[in-house]
DNA sequence: CACCACCCCTGGACGC
DNA sequence: TGCGTCCAGGGGTGGT
């Protein structure tokens, strides 16, 4: 599930392949995954009817999705990615749970006979395809459709609207800002760290890893985190996320980068998914609990600060 | 403000 | 083999 390291890996691998190329065509097979900010004027998540996303008009849609633009930059904030065209248009990509962006062709090394499409990229649930001037294509795939695309008239509009609602990126936040954010909420520490408005980029996997590394219990009240502990959280965050990026992210089931490569960090989890297994530090069984509605594993002995109940 | 249930959605695991 | 059921999860929404 794409969190910051996976999205950053996609940004880098995609950028290498597509920046400088021109989008010569866009195919949209499922318009419902595209949100157009400039349609309806009520923001990107405006829906019509019951839970129905509002698609933009056909011509406007392809143009808004960068048809005719040269791809100038790939940016990231938290778990969100943005493709910026040379003319200023922008498309924000959120991969949700199961989304991927894969470059397909025109590589002569494309293997044949693999499952799915060219290069082994799975070909079902492909909702949007960008055709590039070198014959390659970028496929937006999202089986569970928790992700989507948001179109913007400019990078500034993207940053001032959608990204302005997010907290500081997890790789850029300072100890002072993290401490300030944590100190004003009585929520569980894990709940606070998952809040993208407080800090952007952490999901269930890396929060569990972060809290294990820093020996803080997920149910510690966020406001009780000291300045020193905030400093340790920030340092550990940068180290863990940096290591995960270096490993190409974590692949649990579906995740692949823009070149269809799986990540390698999943073999290094110390907490996530290890409930019932011995803690790597003290040997006690890792506990399984639900925090913020998410399955959580933590060491009941090493990770301190949970507020006793009753 | 904070918490909760619920919704979106698919596929994989598991039981029968 | 083929069902049914449960579960995973980010994020939005609406109710308490």
Helix content: 10-25%
Strand proportion, as a percent range, falls in: 15-25%
Which residues sit in consecutive blocks of at least 5 with pLDDT less than 50? 38-55, 108-115
What string gives the helices and strands in order?
HEEEEHEEEEEEEHEHHEHHEE
User: Residue-averaged pLDDT, rounded?
Assistant: 86
Termini separation:
36 Å
What general outline do the C-alpha atoms trace? Answer: globular
Number of strand segments:
15
Q: Order of strands across the widest beta sheet?
A: 2-11-7-6-5
Q: Rg, please? A: 21 Å
Largest sheet: 5 strands, mixed
- Please tally the helical runs, counting DSSP H or I stretches of 4 or more residues: 7
Structural class: alpha+beta
Please characterize this protein's 3D structure.
- The structure is a single chain.
- The protein has 310 residues and is of the alpha+beta class.
- The chain is built from seven helices and 15 strands.
- The protein has helices at residues 4-18, 58-64, 155-160, 175-183, 189-194, 204-213, 227-246, and strands at residues 23-28, 34-36, 47-48, 52-53, 71-77, 80-85, 90-94, 100-104, 126-132, 137-141, 148-152, 168-169, 199-200, 287-291, 294-298.
- Residues 38-55 and 108-115 have low confidence and may be disordered.
- The chain binds a DNA duplex (16 and 16 nucleotides) through residues 1-3, 45, 51, 79, 94-98, 125, 142-147, 185-187, 191, 194, 196, 203-204, 252-254, 293-295.
């Amino acid at each position: 599930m794409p969190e910051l390291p996976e999205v950053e890996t996609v940004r880098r691998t995609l950028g290498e392949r597509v920046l400088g190329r021109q989008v010569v065509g866009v195919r949209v097979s499922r318009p419902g995954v595209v949100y157009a900010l400039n349609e309806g004027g009520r923001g990107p998540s405006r829906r019509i009817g019951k839970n129905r996303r509002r698609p933009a008009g056909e011509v406007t849609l392809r143009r808004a999705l960068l048809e005719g633009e040269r791809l100038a930059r790939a940016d990231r904030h938290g778990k969100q990615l943005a493709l910026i065209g040379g003319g200023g248009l922008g498309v924000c990509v959120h991969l949700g749970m199961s989304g991927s962006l894969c470059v397909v062709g025109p590589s002569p090394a494309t293997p044949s006979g693999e499952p799915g499409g060219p290069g082994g990229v799975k070909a079902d649930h492909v909702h949007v395809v960008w055709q590039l001037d070198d014959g390659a294509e970028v496929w937006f795939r999202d089986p569970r459709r928790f992700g989507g695309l948001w179109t913007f008239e400019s990078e500034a509009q993207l940053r001032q609207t959608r990204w302005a609602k997010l907290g500081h990126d997890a790789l850029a936040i300072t100890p002072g800002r993290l401490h300030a954010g944590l100190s004003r909420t009585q929520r569980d520490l894990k709940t606070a760290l998952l809040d993208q408005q407080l800090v952007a980029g952490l999901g269930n996997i890396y929060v569990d890893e972060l809290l294990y590394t820093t020996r803080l219990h997920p149910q510690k009240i966020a406001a009780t985190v000291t300045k020193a502990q905030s400093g340790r959280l920030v340092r550990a965050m940068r180290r863990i996320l940096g290591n995960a990026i270096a490993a190409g992210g974590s692949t649990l089931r579906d995740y692949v980068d823009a070149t269809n490569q799986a990540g390698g960090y999943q073999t290094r989890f110390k907490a996530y998914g290890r409930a019932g297994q011995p803690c790597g530090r003290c040997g006690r069984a890792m506990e399984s609990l639900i925090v913020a509605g998410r399955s959580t594993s933590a060491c009941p002995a090493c990770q301190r600060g949970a507020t006793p109940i009753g």
